[in-house]
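Workshop exercise sheet. Pairs work together: one partner reads the sequence aloud, the other fills in the structure field after running the prediction. Swap roles for the next sheet.
Pair: D.N. / O.F.
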Amino acid sequence: MAGNPERRAALVDAGVEVLAREGARGLTFRSVDASAGVPVGTASNYFTNRDDLLRQIDARLHVRLAPDPGVMGALLTRPRDRSLVTAFMHDLMARATKDRTGYLALMEMRLEATRRPELRASFTKSVRGDLDEALEFHRGAGLPGGDEAVTVLYLAMLGLLLEHLTLPDVLDGVLPGVSVPEGLVERIAATILPEE
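Structure field:
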């Protein structure tokens, strides 16, 4: 296995691009090499097989799509109320919009996991870890709503992200006078976390 960490990271990011653009069936070492602009055969020197590449893409996506600690810190100076939860949801939507490719690759990983039990097990563990982390963060930060509210927020935002990043026109005008996606984020938070 080749040991250049910068080259490995570039190949994994190229894999993210291929996965988002062509889907899991198009994710080959040759397509990753082409996307990274490296000689044919380079990816095979860095990954033992396609599953190894997918696992490393999963790990990389967690880094790429993670919230910015500075943004989180600034938000956490605010009162612990629904508006803060809404601000976190807006940050999530902004990150998804900024790295649309990363989120599309994440969705492709979900689809590929339905076809491959070995990937399903590791990806389920990874995504469940994210959900558990969100629940723990919500509890630890003293935000309104309990685990049920966080789980429903998670599901609602997952649906909004799916529609907004894949078929955004589906949501246009669905709620007259509510902007997409910003207004829908506000509605989701207000519906799940009514003011006390």
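Discussion prompt: The chain has a mean pLDDT of 95. What would you look at next?
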